[in-house]
Amino acid sequence: MNEAIRPGSDNRPQAQEGPELSVIVPTFNERDNVTVLYRRLEATLPNVAWEVVFVDDNSPDGTWDVVRALAQRDSRVRCVRRIGRRGLSGACIEGILASSAPFVAVIDADLQHDETQLPKMLLLLASDQADLVVGSRYIEGYKSEGFNKQRAGASALATEVARKMLRVEIADPMSGFFMVRRDRFEELAPKLSVHGFKILLDLVATAHGSLRAVEIPYTFGARQHGESKLDSMVALDFLGLVLAKLSNDTVSLRFILFAMVGGIGLVVHLTTLFIALRVFKAPFAEAQAAGAIVAMTSNFILNNFLTYRDQRLKGFALLRGLIAFYIVCSVGLLANVGVAFSVYDQEPIWWLAGMAGALMGVVWNYAMSGLFVWRKK
């Protein structure tokens, strides 16, 4: 019969040393890649105490199930399955904060990043030569096997915008492949946005030059399985992050995205109004109503796919959310007009009154949408 373990007895379990390196891998529909990446890490880090944390956004293809099967065989593999939350930045932040090593790497699951550079990156951090090591596409020695010209051009443009507007010093702030000291990351984590795709840009911009960074070249490989998660919405997402950082995070990234969608809605409204008046010869009241409905509908669709992508509505919830959004925006319109008239009575400057009303409208719509349309469960 087994003897009970008592405080102070000699048969206490022996403490084991923790990992030196945690590798964070955000995933969504990557079931065909995770096992390959695990084997590559195993081959690349034979002399390093490491762990890998796959942070999966509840992939429909069951990526999380494959990771858990790996974890059953190797305790160095961990799975964080997120339900009701989406987004690469948020996944990286949660994964890093859930890890335990003093050094943390972020690498994509699509096998395009060069995991053979991890030992070199770790050496630079462990020897205190840097706080952050970035796998860079814009320094000598970089090679690309899977970066098409269109994507490369867009990335180069975004990089130049980020460096000029946010005064970021590193050559490739848009990289998704980097390693950082976890103590430095935890200092900055409360100020990082959980929305969006560019966690490194957010990290470097938030640090305001306080991170000692080293960039190393690597070979960008071709995607083996699955499809890229980048789409046309990323451009708005990136612009929103830049504006949020320019405001020193006074205004949140989500609010900026909501306001940008509202600006697009204004264009949609005016375009619909013009078509209804000139093409269909509709009375102004009916044309205005049509413009408002089309604009609100387009705003709802864009917000559902961009601003609230981590709480995206589907099925019946989509219809219910649309109706709630109509109601919220209708009340927001009354708030808009009320504030505009109040400002105009005090200072009869039409554009000032209009801007005040529009700002009140967007603040109201944003606050109420978060409460009644895209409310967290």
Describe this structure in words.
The protein has 377 residues and is an alpha/beta fold. The protein is built from twelve helices and nine strands. It has helices at residues 31-44, 63-73, 88-98, 118-126, 149-166, 182-188, 199-207, 233-246, 253-278, 284-307, 316-346, 350-372; strands spanning 21-27, 50-56, 77-81, 103-106, 132-136, 143-144, 178-181, 213-217, 219-220. The protein has a seven-stranded mixed beta sheet, with helices on both faces. The chain has a two-stranded parallel sheet with strand order 6-9. Helix 2 links the parallel strand 2 (50-56) and strand 3 (77-81). Helix 5 (149-166) runs parallel beside helix 8 (233-246), helix 9 runs antiparallel to helix 10 and helix 10 packs across helix 11. The radius of gyration is 25 Å and the shape is elongated. The relative contact order is 0.09. Residues 1-15 have low confidence and may be disordered.
SSE inventory with pairings:
Elements: E1 21-27, H1 31-44, E2 50-56, H2 63-73, E3 77-81, H3 88-98, E4 103-106, H4 118-126, E5 132-136, E6 143-144, H5 149-166, E7 178-181, H6 182-188, H7 199-207, E8 213-217, E9 219-220, H8 233-246, H9 253-278, H10 284-307, H11 316-346, H12 350-372
Parallel strand pairs: 1-2, 1-4, 2-3, 5-8, 6-9
Antiparallel strand pairs: 4-7, 5-7
Helix pairs in contact: 1-2, 5-8, 8-9, 9-10, 10-11, 11-12
